[in-house]
TrEMBL record:
It is an enzyme of class 3 (hydrolase). It is found in: Cytoplasm. Keywords: Cytoplasm, Hydrolase, Nuclease, Ribosome biogenesis. This is Putative pre-16S rRNA nuclease. GO terms for biological process: rRNA 5'-end processing. Its EC number is 3.1.-.-. GO terms for cellular component: cytosol. Could be a nuclease involved in processing of the 5'-end of pre-16S rRNA. The gene is ruvX. Residues 4-104 form the YqgF/RNase H-like domain. Residues 142-161 are annotated as: Disordered. It comes from the Bacteria.
Length: 161
């Protein structure tokens, strides 16, 4: 059985959404939107959020195409996950995140937020959806969904390119 804080990360080209659950795994909440920069300080900023949450597990969205194939966005997520693994202690798992952004936009519209205000929080909401999915899977199966980062070989990364 998985225990402890789970942090969810939605990696994008411009922004990274971060969410987490409480230590009892009851509820997911948004944490921050981190701007991606060319110097890589976004990796350190996300690592600091993980450390501050005392996270035991990190789930990072693996943005597969609707066909299930890996593409450029998947390569970016894997690269980010590997950089993050070098600076944090938490276990990292890659989870399928198809449609989380679509669901996040739908949730924000349902909450009454105008679409022009979505950009600031949609990545956080997508991360919340990932954490909620992870918590549901853990409750049902006793284990995390997805594939541990350590199981993604360089061959897998080449397939994503």
């Amino acid at each position: 059985m998985v225990v402890g804080v789970i942090v969810g990360i939605d990696v994008g080209k411009a922004r990274i959404g971060v969410a987490r659950c409480d230590p009892d795994g009851i509820m997911a909440v948004p944490v921050a939107t981190v701007r991606v920069d060319q110097w890589g300080s976004h990796v350190d900023e996300v690592a600091e959020l993980i450390e501050a949450a005392r996270a035991a597990h990190v789930v990072i969205g693996m943005p597969r195409r609707l066909s299930g194939q890996l593409g450029e966005a998947a390569t970016m997520a894997l690269d980010f996950a590997r950089e993050l693994a070098a600076v944090t202690h938490a276990d990292i798992t890659m989870v399928d995140e198809r449609m989380t952004s679509v669901s996040a936009h739908r949730d924000l519209r349902s909450a009454g937020l105008s679409s022009r205000h979505h950009r600031a929080v949609v990545d956080q909401q997508a991360a919340v959806i990932m954490v909620e999915h992870t918590l549901d899977t853990v409750r049902r199966t006793g284990s995390l969904p997805g594939t541990a980062l350590s199981e993604w070989s360089d061959t897998s990364q080449e397939e994503a390119r």
